[in-house]
Amino acid sequence: MQIDIKRIDSPVGFLDIAAMEDGICRLDFADKGMNVFAETPNVTITQNNNLYIDELEIQLKEYFERKRKQFTVKLSMRGTPFQKKVWAALQEIPYGSTYSYKAQAAAIGMPKAVRAVANANGANPISIVVPCHRVIGSNGQLTGYGGGLWRKKFLLELESEK
Question: What is the pTM of this model?
Fold first, then answer.
């Protein structure tokens, strides 16, 4: 299996994009590192563009310029069935809106699974595009974001249309 990677600059710092032949498999903040693939057997990592990386790079530029509210690049998400269900629900949160972890758990039909939902959000491999930054605490406070709360705040303010 080949994974192409590229690092790009953005208003929230450098982003690492990874894609396979069937879509984007990772978008993360460069200061977190791409070592997630280090222990994956039978993987060749190359610093290449591919059509998905090129497309995402354009879409991210448009997003940060407030010209794009929804991403259309093809994703190749790897995770458990539960994680995939949580990540699909994240993609249903409208641009400029926020949900609580409790509301997200209810949205997937598992209102008592708040902690499990929060853990699945934390394992989201495709930041920004799969908008886990739109999930906040029930009290309205910004909580838990792997990229740091300053990035979560930045992304929410970007989407607030101010």
Answer: 0.89
